[in-house]
Amino acid sequence: MSDGVDRSHERIAAGEEGTAAAGREVASMTRAGDLWLVGGEVGAGKSTLVRAALRELGVTGAIPSPTFTVGRLYDSPGQRFPVAHLDLYRLGDLAGEDPGLLAEYFGTDRASFVEWPGSAEEELTTMATRIGRVAIDHLDEGSRRIRIEPPE
């Protein structure tokens, strides 16, 4: 339930490390059951931010982009809780999809990070009780504006 206070904030991230630092900040706000919707144009740093968040949450090993698989689940020893990483760029919307297509990626026992939520955003927000948002914009070749809206 919102208390009417805007807790969102912006940061200017220099290079990949600045974007990764924002990802670690996102991880520090994340609890099991949370859904993070991560938007930005191609090459803005969405995957860099999500990878850093997943590392901070304890994911080890390779974290490949889920662009061609829609989603990946991570649940290994040392993690705070299971996490899911989805990329809906190629999916577009969920209207013509099997209703259970994404069910395994959401739940009260895991946090979910969705890149390119697009037109599926409204349906996705019904799959979690706390929703966070990250918007990444190019400022120039090496800088990004990252707006973080923490889950509530």
Name the features.
single chain; 152 residues; alpha/beta; Rossmann fold; 7-stranded mixed beta sheet; 3 helices
The number of helical segments is: 3
Helix content: 10-25%
Instruction: List the helices and strands in order.
Output: EHEHEEEHEE
Q: What is the beta-strand fraction?
A: 25-35%
CATH class: Alpha Beta
Main pleated sheet: 7 strands, mixed
By secondary-structure content and strand pairing, the structural class works out as alpha/beta
CATH arch. level architecture: 3-Layer(aba) Sandwich
Uncertain residue segments: none
Shape assignment? globular
Radius of gyration: 15 Å
Mean pLDDT: 89
| Total count of strands | 7
* Arrangement of strands in the largest sheet: 1-7-6-2-5-4-3
Describe the protein in words.
This protein has 152 residues and is an alpha/beta fold. It has a single domain (21-137), classed as 3-Layer(aba) Sandwich (Rossmann fold), CATH 3.40.50. It is built from 3 helices and 7 strands. Strands 1-7-6-2-5-4-3 form a 7-stranded mixed β-sheet, with helices on one face. It is globular. The model has no long low-confidence stretch (mean pLDDT 89).
